[in-house]
Amino acid sequence: MAAEFESGAIRNVVLAGHGGAGKTTLAEAMLFAAGETNRMGSVEDGSTVSDYHKDEIDRQHSLVLSMLHAKWKGHKLNILDGPGYPDFIGDMKSAVRVADTMVMAVDASAGVGFGADSAWSFAEESRIPVLFTLTKVATEHAHLEETLDYLREHFSRDIVPLEYPVYKDKALAGMVNILSMQYMTFSIDGSGKHTDSGDIPDEVKARCLELREGLVETLAESSEELMNEFFENGTLTDEQIKTGLKAALLQRRIFPLFAVSSTKNVGVTPLMDFLVEYCPSPLDLPAPHVAKDGVEGGVELPKTSDGSPILFVFKTVSEHHVGELSFFRVYGGKVASGTDLVNAQNGTAERVNQIYTTNGSKRKEATELVFGDIGAVVKLKNTHTNNTLAPKGKEVVIPTIIFPGPITDAAVVMKGKGDEAKVSEGLHTMHEEDPTFNVYQDPESHETVVSGLGEMHLEVIIKRLQDRYGIEVEMKPPRIPYRETIRKSATTSYRHKKQTGGAGQFGEVHCFVGPYDENIPVPSQYNVRGEEFEELSWGGKLHFVNAIVGGAIEARFIPAVKKGVLEMLGRGVYAGYPITNVRVVLYDGKMHPVDSNENAFKTAGRMCFREGFNMCNPKLMEPIWDLEIAAPADYMGEIMGDLSSRRGRIMGMDAKGSTQIIKAQVPLGELYGYAARLRSLTQGRGSYTRNFSHYEEVPGDVEQKIVKSAELEEIED
Ligand SMILES: Nc1nc2c(ncn2[C@@H]2O[C@H](COP(=O)(O)OP(=O)(O)OP(=O)(O)O)[C@@H](O)[C@H]2O)c(=O)[nH]1
Ligand SMILES: [Mg+2]
Q1: Same fold yes or no, 299-390 and 409-476
Q2: pLDDT tens readout for residues 506-519
Q3: Global pTM?
Q4: Which residues have a beta carbon within 5 Å of ligand 2, which is an ion?
Q5: What is the mean pLDDT of the segment spanning 501-508?
Q6: pLDDT greater than 70 at residue 452
Q7: How many beta carbons lie within 10 A of that of residue 556, not counting itself?
Q8: Would you say the CB of residue 578 lies under 6 angstroms from ligand 1?
Q9: In the predicted model, what is the mean pLDDT of residues 287-302?
Q10: Architecture of domain 484-616 in CATH?
């Protein structure tokens, strides 16, 4: 049986926008309007098709990307409803990658925010058209004009309203369609029915005419041909507007603005009509260039359902009783149930058994999905987000999605005794489902550290881990990788001597210990006979100088002394943290003809270094991170105040539209919980990225606290 929809009849639409803007409710209204469901669910009742996971219902926010679809006027609308909250922006990025049009929901009473800004930049990157939609327009807060000004200022001057809501006595009365200049009134019983109600009300007529002129001018500016027509005739014909609008949308020269009240199902069907009539199908957008047999720049995939199937997995979700569900888009040929393919990245043979289309948790078996369509498959063996499946011998790799890097970390500890292997396996599965969540074993602290896009992100994942595997774990601040160093130098000696029973131990070393800096030479009194620059795995160097004269210590014992020093460097002397950038000059010592051996000299080296280091005014160094914080200007005061309470240093300020960017340096030790704090300071609008910058001396009072709580290992003499 052939596929139900051909490529030209498919519209892949991502719903984007800030958390709470109304995406999920809009999706719900679309499904209802199309007859996919027979009642409108609501986010409050936890009854939407899209937010079906328990944690989504509990929090009344989407946390995972959902794939929905509806049949509308002979077309298939694939609707991708992702989370708008900044912590889950990874899923939004996945969704944008496989979408051909973005519908950006804007809650007029709340403005835009990080979710919308990120989605906008993802759409820019993917070069897909963006339609804006004012949501919740049946509430009296929906100030279209102010929001339009704001959106034009913030995103683009080419935002043009195509639906203009009309209010009477503060209640929504109807909408003017700017393309057809028809005034429609809607039944507000949720049925989505609307009727042509004749003349445009007088009070908005002039404004609507102006908007239509604006539309025509924007289109004329988008192409030379239309510009000439416009000059000759003073306007454009309906046909020219239609073709011009389609082309300008694709070229991102125009961004239409719609208006909906999803809860009342008003304005939803005109938006769906527009998606079908004007927005691109998978055949209209450029095909991705794929990597194939080392061809430089890649090969452009043919945009056709003929030929071998090429599937790109953009999201995986583990579902109770189902196993792993992999969502894919068909980037080449068509795919039927029971196709044998291979994972082009890791070579695993994968059988695509039953393919499905989904509406939230509901799956429907599909026989075949064509080029450009989106579907799901269960129980692939070793295929994850960003993998391409292709027939054996015809492997290609679709460019992978580049996810934002983590901005927050936490150490995971088990509450009681339990199965560590289970925790580790669970956390790795979570990473496969969500590549913006990472887990690793810190080699220095031996802690299991998780990182992600915010504390809420980590909390949601840890909660999921507990629910799925029944393991109780909690998060705490990870151990900060402080470093010890010195500012002064000293000389000291140490004799290690033991005579118990049989063979004794004897080694004596005399050392100079000082800070290492390549610009400071070895003090001139030492006669350098050999030197080594040891790169330390935790950063910095050990400059170990052999300045032994007259064979005071035999050459074979010298490496043992260095080994002893290195042991101490790894362990730390002052507060139990690794030591960086020191110079040790071994300039004298003594041996015993019988009792001297490597072990004795290693111990002598270790103890001598420890004594010397303690004489050199040790210091603690802390990691400092560069933050780039973006938030609306209104929140600057709170953000700055909070930064200064974290010992942050402001390095610069900048503005990007109505968003302020702050560059700051903050010690890592003060950053635990920062993402959540920033979100709460900015009502979820603030976001940041981070990069390690450098190490810096810890201020005295802070240092005292760290040293006090240090747990130094006892070392044997
Ligand atoms: N009055 C009114 N409320 C709406 C409308 N659309 C959404 N809401 C409400 O706004 C809130 C947020 O709506 P959602 O649909 O969950 O928003 P979202 O964009 O999916 O949010 P995230 O999933 O967190 O990104 C819910 O309480 C909805 O009931 C609308 O048209 N009118
Ligand atoms: Mg949602």
Answers
A1: no
A2: 999 999 999 999 89
A3: 0.88
A4: 23-24, 62
A5: 84
A6: yes
A7: 11
A8: no
A9: 76
A10: 2-Layer Sandwich (3.30)
CATH of domain 620-706: 3.30.70.240
CATH of domain 409-476: 3.30.70.870
Asked if the model's pLDDT at residue 369 lies above 80, the reply is: yes
Which contacts qualify for 193-200: CB closer than 8 Å, 24 or more apart?
A: 194/266, 194/269, 194/270, 200/176
CB neighbour list of residue 172: distance below 8 Å, 6 or more residues apart: 137, 138, 142, 165, 166, 261, 264, 266
Q: Is 118 in the pocket of ligand 1 (CB under 6 A)?
A: no
Q: Is the CB of 53 within 6 Å of ligand 1?
A: no
Q: What CA–CA distance (Å, rounded) separates 647 from 624?
A: 10
Determine if ligand 1 sits within 6 Å of the CB of residue 25. Answer: yes
CATH of the domain spanning 9-214+255-278, picked from 3.20.20.70, 3.40.50.720, 3.40.50.2300, 3.40.50.300: 3.40.50.300
The closest alpha carbon to 338, from 310, 368, 313, 318, belongs to 368
Helix axes 598-614, 558-571, angle to 10 degrees: 50
Both tokens of 600, joined, read 């004795």
549, 552, 555, 560: CA torsion to nearest 10? -120
Q: For residue 564, which of 514, 515, 611, 530 has the smallest C-alpha distance?
A: 611
Best substitution site from 28, 40, 43 to test ligand 1's pocket, by max atoms within 8 Å of Cβ? 43
Instruction: Give residue-wise pLDDT tens across range 457-501.
Output: 999 999 998 888 888 889 999 999 999 999 999 999 999 998 776
Span 4-55, pLDDT tens digits? 899 999 999 999 999 999 999 999 999 999 999 999 999 999 999 999 999 9
